[in-house]
Amino acid sequence: MSPEIVVDLASIRHNVRTLRELTGVASMTVVKADGYGHGMVEVARAAREAGSEWIGVATVDEALRLRASGDRGRLLCWLTVPGDDWAAAIDADIDVTAYTVAELDAIAATGRPARVQLKVDTGLSRGGATLESWPEVVARARRGEADGSWRITGIWSHFAASDEPGHPANDAQEHAFRHALELAEGLEPEVRHLANSAAGILRPSSRFDLVRFGIASYGLDPAPGETPDLGLVPAMTVRAPLVSAKRIAAGAGVSYGHTWVADTPTTVGLVPLGYGDGVPRHASNAAHVLVEGKQRVMRGRVCMDQFVVDLDGELPEPGTEVVLFGPGTHGEPTAQDWAEAAGTISYEIVTRIGGRPTRRYVDQ
């Protein structure tokens, strides 16, 4: 057994279907960053099979990779940089996103009839047209539709705090988005979309024509402590063999810096994954793994290639399975458990894991 990341595509399909049924509108499954660490091509295929009308990615390169894999159907990308090949994206039947008049001019300069979505910044202060520049962007969009440069297929924005349902930014952003839609009179987009996973689940008024589901598609909670139990199933399990187990005496320090010192005699095991494989160093002395049906705490600092766990006096055989995280259905920690141990979010846990472990797909 080698370290591996096991992805259950049946769970992806289950989650996509569950989320589509919940909202009652079209869904976009977001597969940026290699499908949040799950595999962009495989997740997109599973999402299409489950009825997801759209796939979303960040970059043009990601979109072109999906097309090269054989993916068809509606596909949106939204993060371009100066010098990106707009023509290649348009030729590949990709919906592209524009924030500015300059980007619209660059799209028109390709001479190719494009499908374009306009993004407005309603308060995240990240990508998107500012509310001040929005009328100018809309006016240029209207001119481009009139001269055949493109068809505006969508208008959209993104929440800053949808995982906190009571945050005042949510009302403010939805109000700003509705106002931006009013200012876009004369454009007739196919889809208006604002909601991500948390908003799609928790804020029905923000669903409009389409919801962009990212982390929830992978079975992880977009708003821990706020989300009702929808029966979503985490799709990723990370496992590795135990390299060795040995006894250590009271007073023995473990791993770099001896940030943990045994106060009684115990046994420790070595797991062949480290921060070079995306195991967060911030999880040192805090995260748990499953070994022989019991959760065992990590001891000492995570190293580049390995970490140590406390085996509480037991000496499992080398090769014994160690489960870092998974769905939680067999007593193992979840990605959310690891996120809490590392002081981060589950998105980062599953997206960063990788490197040397092989990725294996199952359909259970």
TrEMBL record:
The keyword Isomerase applies. The active site is at K32 (proton acceptor), Y256 (proton acceptor). The modification N6-(pyridoxal phosphate)lysine is found at K32. One of its GO terms (cellular component) is cytosol. Residues 235-362 form the Alanine racemase C-terminal domain. Pfam families: Ala_racemase_C, Ala_racemase_N. The keyword NAD does not apply. Its cofactor is pyridoxal 5'-phosphate. Substrate binds at R126, M304. This is Alanine racemase. It comes from Nocardioides agri. The gene is alr.
